[in-house]
Amino acid sequence: MSIQPVQAFEPPYVMAVFSNVRTPDESGYPETNARMNELVAENPGFLGYESARTPGGLGITVAYFRDHESLGVWREDMEHQAAMKQGRAHWYESYTLHVATVERSHGFARND
User: Fold this and answer.
1) Which H helix or E strand runs over 48?
2) Domains with residue ranges and CATH for the chain
3) For residues 96-106, average pLDDT
């Protein structure tokens, strides 16, 4: 399987950029993260996500949604709310969330 960015979608759509620095506490994080990935994929307006972590520990996840309503459904999901509470209590030293409407989008893929 090759690594690919999330495809370009027809704008407008919404992106949520979650930048974070984690604590050393890993207890329950991998399982919760896997569950959140399953859960968000059930949202009909969810388009995909990209995530990376620098060697220094900065993590960035960009999630794409068809509209603000779809993102709102995700934000208000009760399991997601519980995971966010756990994150603030145990897994994150700090984080920032940026939400924006994408006005332009295009992509490129080399055909080898």
Assistant:
1) strand 46-53
2) 13-102 (3.30.70.100)
3) 97
